[in-house]
Amino acid sequence: MLTCAKANKQEVDVASLSSYMRGKHREIQEKIFYFFNSRPDLQIPTEISMKEHRELCLRQLLGLVREAKIKPFRYVVEDPAKYFAISEAVGSIDISLGIKFGVQYSLWGGSVLNLGTKKHRDKYFDGIDNLEYLGCFAMTELHHGSNVQGLQTVATFDPITDEFIIDTPNDGAIKWWIGNAAVHGKFATVFARLVLPTHDSKGVSDMGVHAFIVPIRDLKTHQPLPGIEINDCGHKIGLNGVDNGALRFRSVRIPRDNLLNRFGDVTRDGKYTSSLPTINKRFAATLGELVGGRVGLAHSSVGILKIAVIIAVRYSLLRQQFGPPKQPEVSILDYQSQQHKLMPMLASTYAFHFATQYLVEKYSEMKKTHDEQLVGDVHALSAGLKSYVTSFTAKSLSTCREACGGHGYAAVNRFGTLRNDHDIFQTFEGDNTVLLQQVAADLLKQYKDKFQGGALSVTWNYLRESMNTYLSQPNPVTARWESEDHLRDPKFQLDAFRYRTSRLLQSVAARLQKHTKTLGSFGAWNRCLNHLLTLAESHIESVILAKFIEAVQNCPDASSQAALKLLCDLYALDRIWKDIGTYRNVDYVAPNKAKAINKLTQYLSFQVRNIAGEFIDAFDLPPYVLRAPIAMQSEAYSQYTQLVGF
Fold first, then answer.
1. DSSP label at 159?
2. Is 322 helix (H, G, I), strand (E, B) or coil?
3. Could you tell me the sign of the dihedral formed by the alpha carbons of 97, 103, 104, 110, in that order?
4. Tens of pLDDT along 495-552?
5. Where are the transmembrane segments (predicted)?
């Protein structure tokens, strides 16, 4: 099989494939790489304290904006694709820098643009853009992270002074893990319950969670303002270039105009006005405008995965170990076990690239049209892709380190810092398990709407046909087809993915209905939770494959298209084989077909191995981002990296 695969090695035009992958924002990414490569003083030294790393991270950000003249803020709304391309390049330099960049522009700046109105944009835009107004995004509390509606910080309106009074009512309501708060932040977007005085027996009315601009430090002295207590969250597992802090508010007064009032406002006489009729609708609209953070994390996580895969594959191509008697040692990537670790991962990296590219396109369209159905679609898709991609990348970083053996443990190759810094991607901007539940809940809503004659949103259109297919028995003839042409047919692959999703959806809906009768809705959901998470992951894999197939079909260069088709087939068949039990249990795949899938998956891995160098070259990342700064700061370490292949 190996001999056959080597004989059939495909030719790949790396330049064409790279051009197709990198797209129209390649130039600005190259500008960022050139700037940091030309500034040794902005590279992270081998040993650096938390305090020094934070200051270096700020200098890196200031250098990017004020010296390299990269001004990303306007792209947050005007051209999100360009903003995310900048963010990916910045994060590849140092993930701490990428996160600090995102806190400033996507979270703090994004909240002003997306939740505020013209008066807020006019007042704060320039200061955010040029980094005069470094800011924070103060949502998470000590006792409430994922459950945003449970936040306890209070903003009470005082009609006498025309001000809001921001209060932290108890220790559990202290704002926690707030990026930029410990050292550098001057403002914070604070999420708090808006409370209005009333003239009835209750005395107050809770209007739900709203966002407020709260100055936290004096612009001249940089000292905390009266009533604001700031503490440092200290040393973390990773991302120590980001100054996470805790904020406590003691009767802090802010002007009424500091309410970010796009979805709800308070008049001078204390009356609440909103175009949205309920607390839940206002809350959903608010969070809907903040999905850019999830989109950015999914996109950045793919960028980190690319770096790790390039390092591991390149090392595996160059590293030789063992071989036939009295013959030269062979590349460790010729071993089936190494291919099994890395080739499906390489295919997945390409798959995720195109899926997150699609997500960015849909997000950009949503920002332009504000279409309500598209908002819901992007919300669920961003939740699913952020969860799935970041979890996959976290596991892959460890796999890549292990695939490089003892040399993989050296600091020169970035695995350690990438793994530690990326780990939190699975938690912030929505815990991955919680996000998958949101995807499952949306699928169940779509499933219910389907049987009530409602329209399915764009990403879920396939359910209309595949649910009907599921409700009929698998075809005993196609279940036994095992030719290579059939198994590499995109229709077979996509049908298999979607059949699995539809089967999981129908079965979990039936289970929920059954258990709700005895356990109630909350208990039933908890009883079926693992089933629901599997459903959500299956759906996201279906979306990823669909977008990969589209990317293959749309590729204009023939050699690049053939190479991408090879990766796409490997991605699809590897996923089917890893869940072959599901397909066998319902006779969707007969035993002989299952064996054929396994055999073909191994063969495709061999073929991908033969052009793995071309595939990683097409990512076109400069050596500067593939080695830790230690490799460039020390001649001895530089020689070491060349000797071992990093």
1. T
2. coil
3. positive
4. 999 999 999 999 999 999 999 999 999 999 999 999 999 999 999 999 999 999 999 9
5. none
Assigned token pair, 66: 């004020």
Closest CA to 244 of 183, 174, 330, 157: 183
Domains with residue ranges and CATH for the chain? 135-282 (2.40.110.10), 290-456+476-645 (1.20.140.10)
Where in the sequence numbering do the catalytic residues fall? 429
| Start-end of H helices in 170-326 | 279-288, 292-318
Q: Are 609 and 334 in contact (CB under 8 A)?
A: yes
User: In the 8-state DSSP scheme, what is residue 251?
Assistant: S
Give the model confidence (pLDDT) of 408-446 as tens digits: 888 888 899 999 999 999 998 889 999 999 999 999 988
Residue 231 near residue 220, CB atoms below 8 Å: no
CA-based nearest residue to 366, from 23, 358, 101 = 358
Amino acid residing at 641: T
Q: C-alpha angle with apex 348: 8 to 361, nearest 5 degrees?
A: 120
Reported in sequence order, the residue ranges of 443-548 that DSSP labels E, i.e. its strands, are none
Burial of 215 (0-12, 13-18, 19+ CB in 10 A): middle
CA distance 357 to 298: 10
Give the integer Cα–Cα distance in Å for 504 and 535.
6
Tell me if residue 507 falls in helix, strand or coil. Answer: helix
Please name the residue that has the structure tokens 């949502």: 139
In angstroms, the CA 426 to CA 344 distance is 21
- Binding-site residue positions for FAD: 140, 179
With b for 16 or more beta-carbon neighbours within 10 A and e for fewer, the 321-340 pattern comes to eeeeeeeeeeebbbeeebbe
User: Residue type for 279, please?
Assistant: I
Write the pLDDT tens digit of every residue in 326-375: 888 889 999 999 999 999 999 999 999 999 999 999 999 998 888 888 88
| 217, 186 Cβ separation under 8 angstroms | yes
The count of other CB atoms within 10 Å of the CB of residue 459 is 23
Please report where in the chains the tokens 């695969």 appear, as a residue.
5
Distance CA 523, CA 486 (A): 43
